[in-house]
Amino acid sequence: MSAFSEPAQRHAILPLLAAGFLLVATGAGAQETKSQLKGLQLSNDQPIQIQSDKLEIQQQSNTAQFTGNVKVVQGTTTLQAGNMVVHYSAEGGGSISSGDANIEKIDVSEKVFLQSGTQEATADTGTFNLVDEVFVLKGDKVVLSEGKNVFVGCQLTVLMRTGEAKLDACGGRVMIQLDPKSRKTTN
Hints:
By secondary structure, this protein is mainly β.
Protein backbone atom coordinates (compact mmCIF):
# COMPACT_ATOMS: atom_id res chain seq x y z
CA MET A 1 0.00 0.00 0.00
CA SER A 2 1.50 3.35 -0.98
CA ALA A 3 0.23 6.21 1.16
CA PHE A 4 2.17 9.14 -0.27
CA SER A 5 2.17 10.88 -3.62
CA GLU A 6 5.30 12.57 -4.97
CA PRO A 7 5.21 15.82 -2.90
CA ALA A 8 5.04 13.89 0.36
CA GLN A 9 7.64 11.41 -0.88
CA ARG A 10 10.26 14.16 -0.91
CA HIS A 11 9.71 14.77 2.79
CA ALA A 12 9.43 11.10 3.75
CA ILE A 13 12.76 10.09 2.18
CA LEU A 14 14.89 12.69 4.01
CA PRO A 15 15.40 10.48 7.05
CA LEU A 16 16.27 7.53 4.87
CA LEU A 17 18.84 9.61 3.01
CA ALA A 18 20.41 10.67 6.28
CA ALA A 19 20.66 7.08 7.35
CA GLY A 20 23.26 6.24 4.72
CA PHE A 21 25.97 5.72 7.28
CA LEU A 22 29.40 5.14 5.82
CA LEU A 23 31.09 5.77 9.18
CA VAL A 24 34.59 7.07 9.59
CA ALA A 25 35.50 6.26 13.20
CA THR A 26 37.45 8.70 15.34
CA GLY A 27 38.63 6.69 18.32
CA ALA A 28 37.83 3.20 19.60
CA GLY A 29 36.92 2.65 23.24
CA ALA A 30 35.70 6.20 23.85
CA GLN A 31 32.53 6.98 25.79
CA GLU A 32 31.06 8.38 22.58
CA THR A 33 32.12 8.45 18.97
CA LYS A 34 31.59 11.35 16.60
CA SER A 35 31.85 10.86 12.87
CA GLN A 36 30.51 11.95 9.53
CA LEU A 37 27.74 10.10 7.75
CA LYS A 38 27.76 10.08 4.00
CA GLY A 39 24.25 10.52 2.61
CA LEU A 40 22.88 8.07 0.11
CA GLN A 41 22.75 9.16 -3.47
CA LEU A 42 19.08 8.39 -4.06
CA SER A 43 16.83 10.19 -6.46
CA ASN A 44 13.65 11.87 -5.21
CA ASP A 45 11.87 10.67 -8.32
CA GLN A 46 12.01 7.04 -7.19
CA PRO A 47 8.69 5.84 -5.79
CA ILE A 48 8.27 5.03 -2.10
CA GLN A 49 6.37 1.88 -1.26
CA ILE A 50 4.94 1.45 2.24
CA GLN A 51 3.45 -1.85 3.38
CA SER A 52 1.93 -2.75 6.74
CA ASP A 53 -0.72 -5.00 8.23
CA LYS A 54 -2.83 -1.98 9.16
CA LEU A 55 -3.02 1.76 8.42
CA GLU A 56 -5.02 4.09 10.64
CA ILE A 57 -5.26 7.77 9.65
CA GLN A 58 -6.33 10.08 12.45
CA GLN A 59 -7.16 13.47 10.91
CA GLN A 60 -7.84 15.16 14.28
CA SER A 61 -4.35 14.39 15.61
CA ASN A 62 -2.69 14.72 12.16
CA THR A 63 -1.15 11.26 12.33
CA ALA A 64 -1.00 8.15 10.24
CA GLN A 65 -0.16 4.95 12.12
CA PHE A 66 1.20 1.94 10.27
CA THR A 67 1.23 -1.21 12.40
CA GLY A 68 2.40 -4.76 11.90
CA ASN A 69 5.32 -5.68 9.64
CA VAL A 70 5.91 -2.13 8.42
CA LYS A 71 8.20 -1.99 5.41
CA VAL A 72 9.23 1.20 3.59
CA VAL A 73 11.24 0.85 0.37
CA GLN A 74 12.73 3.45 -1.95
CA GLY A 75 15.35 2.31 -4.42
CA THR A 76 17.99 0.34 -2.52
CA THR A 77 16.92 1.67 0.91
CA THR A 78 14.62 -0.37 3.17
CA LEU A 79 13.23 0.56 6.58
CA GLN A 80 11.39 -2.10 8.61
CA ALA A 81 9.69 -1.82 12.01
CA GLY A 82 6.72 -3.16 13.91
CA ASN A 83 5.15 0.29 14.16
CA MET A 84 5.52 3.63 12.34
CA VAL A 85 3.68 6.85 13.20
CA VAL A 86 3.82 9.73 10.73
CA HIS A 87 3.08 13.16 12.25
CA TYR A 88 2.11 15.83 9.72
CA SER A 89 1.01 19.43 9.66
CA ALA A 90 -2.54 20.26 8.62
CA GLU A 91 -1.49 23.79 7.57
CA GLY A 92 -2.46 24.50 3.99
CA GLY A 93 -5.15 21.82 4.05
CA GLY A 94 -2.77 18.93 3.35
CA SER A 95 -3.53 15.38 4.43
CA ILE A 96 -1.91 11.96 4.27
CA SER A 97 -4.82 10.47 2.31
CA SER A 98 -4.54 13.12 -0.41
CA GLY A 99 -0.75 12.71 -0.54
CA ASP A 100 0.09 16.37 0.03
CA ALA A 101 0.82 16.39 3.78
CA ASN A 102 3.84 18.22 5.17
CA ILE A 103 5.50 15.53 7.28
CA GLU A 104 7.05 16.88 10.49
CA LYS A 105 8.18 13.73 12.32
CA ILE A 106 8.26 9.97 11.88
CA ASP A 107 8.49 7.63 14.89
CA VAL A 108 9.37 3.96 14.40
CA SER A 109 9.46 1.24 17.05
CA GLU A 110 9.54 -2.50 17.61
CA LYS A 111 12.72 -3.89 16.06
CA VAL A 112 13.82 -1.09 13.75
CA PHE A 113 15.95 -2.23 10.80
CA LEU A 114 17.42 0.09 8.18
CA GLN A 115 19.38 -1.15 5.16
CA SER A 116 20.94 0.49 2.14
CA GLY A 117 23.15 -1.65 -0.03
CA THR A 118 25.73 -3.23 2.29
CA GLN A 119 25.01 -0.76 5.12
CA GLU A 120 22.66 -1.75 7.98
CA ALA A 121 21.42 -0.33 11.30
CA THR A 122 19.28 -1.92 14.00
CA ALA A 123 17.66 -0.31 17.05
CA ASP A 124 14.63 -0.55 19.32
CA THR A 125 13.18 2.84 18.33
CA GLY A 126 13.85 5.71 15.98
CA THR A 127 12.71 9.29 15.49
CA PHE A 128 13.17 11.28 12.31
CA ASN A 129 12.45 14.96 13.04
CA LEU A 130 12.12 16.60 9.63
CA VAL A 131 11.61 20.10 11.05
CA ASP A 132 14.88 20.13 13.02
CA GLU A 133 16.51 17.66 10.58
CA VAL A 134 17.67 15.35 13.38
CA PHE A 135 17.52 11.57 13.26
CA VAL A 136 17.89 9.47 16.45
CA LEU A 137 18.06 5.69 16.84
CA LYS A 138 17.87 4.30 20.40
CA GLY A 139 17.98 0.93 22.06
CA ASP A 140 19.73 -1.35 24.48
CA LYS A 141 22.03 -2.06 21.55
CA VAL A 142 22.13 0.18 18.47
CA VAL A 143 24.25 -1.57 15.85
CA LEU A 144 25.63 0.01 12.68
CA SER A 145 27.49 -2.12 10.18
CA GLU A 146 28.98 -2.12 6.72
CA GLY A 147 30.56 -5.37 5.79
CA LYS A 148 32.82 -6.39 8.69
CA ASN A 149 32.94 -2.86 10.18
CA VAL A 150 30.62 -2.72 13.22
CA PHE A 151 29.74 0.14 15.60
CA VAL A 152 27.72 -0.54 18.77
CA GLY A 153 26.22 1.94 21.24
CA CYS A 154 22.81 2.76 22.68
CA GLN A 155 21.95 6.01 20.87
CA LEU A 156 22.88 7.31 17.44
CA THR A 157 22.12 10.97 16.74
CA VAL A 158 22.52 12.30 13.20
CA LEU A 159 22.31 15.95 12.17
CA MET A 160 20.89 15.56 8.66
CA ARG A 161 22.05 19.03 7.46
CA THR A 162 25.71 18.35 8.16
CA GLY A 163 25.91 14.56 8.25
CA GLU A 164 27.56 14.78 11.69
CA ALA A 165 26.80 11.77 13.85
CA LYS A 166 27.33 10.89 17.49
CA LEU A 167 27.16 7.38 18.92
CA ASP A 168 26.62 7.30 22.70
CA ALA A 169 27.30 4.42 25.08
CA CYS A 170 24.76 5.46 27.78
CA GLY A 171 26.87 4.55 30.79
CA GLY A 172 28.87 1.81 29.12
CA ARG A 173 31.40 2.03 26.33
CA VAL A 174 31.07 2.39 22.58
CA MET A 175 32.36 -0.69 20.74
CA ILE A 176 33.93 -0.41 17.30
CA GLN A 177 35.26 -3.28 15.19
CA LEU A 178 37.08 -2.24 12.01
CA ASP A 179 38.18 -4.56 9.23
CA PRO A 180 41.64 -3.44 8.05
CA LYS A 181 40.75 -4.64 4.55
CA SER A 182 38.07 -1.93 4.32
CA ARG A 183 40.63 0.91 4.44
CA LYS A 184 41.05 2.87 1.26
CA THR A 185 44.51 2.58 -0.16
CA THR A 186 46.16 5.24 -2.26
CA ASN A 187 48.64 4.30 -4.93
